[in-house]
Amino acid sequence: GAVVSQHPSRVICKSGTSVKIECRSLDFQATTMFWYRQFPKQSLMLMATSNEGSKATYEQGVEKDKFLINHASLTLSTLTVTSAHPEDSSFYICSAPGQGGYGYTFGSGTRLTVV
Amino acid sequence: AQKVTQAQTEISVVEKEDVTLDCVYETRDTTYYLFWYKQPPSGELVFLIRRNSFDEQNEISGRYSWNFQKSTSSFNFTITASQVVDSAVYFCALSDYSSASKIIFGSGTRLSIRP
Predict the structure, then answer these.
(1) Which of residues 17-46 of B touch A (CB under 8 A)?
(2) For residue B106, which residues of chain A lie inside 8 Å, CB to CB?
(3) Three-point CA angle A68, A2, B94, nearest 5°
(4) B91-114 pLDDT, tens per residue?
């Protein structure tokens, strides 16, 4: 079935550095990718929607300059957390719509810890 | 606007008990999808079910069953004869009927099954 490979699964970085998270669709073309963030013991909140070949659409309250999203090809979408701070520590997960019998394929998530 | 409410933040039951997780949704769309996902401690999202708004038939899959009632905008999930392995956070979610639309998640219910 459809698979979205998300890397890294865990990352620890120092405050002020940038971190890139990749989501690759392995056996299908993903023209759209949704990026979610989940703080501990909270729900998944949509951050932005990336579309191949165009600018990402950000949800209200999400800083575009801090969370850079690039959808460079039909199989790769990336989220870069720039100048990360401890409050950015969270679980980030991507999702491609329209695949599989249930309509969505999720990556396995990235747990980011900023120290 | 779309909204999913899971009023039960945490539930704890003894193994072999039946347990029902409640989900109430709001949408102005006449056609939509409803979902249930399981999130174990590892973080990945495990798809459980997708139901479209046209189909109000209840569904049973092994120990799992779902009750969809449009009249009350509810999509409740019941686990029969619960097991310790059922311990996880369960999310109810909603999307519109487009194959490329975002999913809106409820706040989740943390289920603990005690041996």
Answers:
(1) 33, 35, 43-45
(2) 43
(3) 70
(4) 999 998 776 788 999 999 999 999
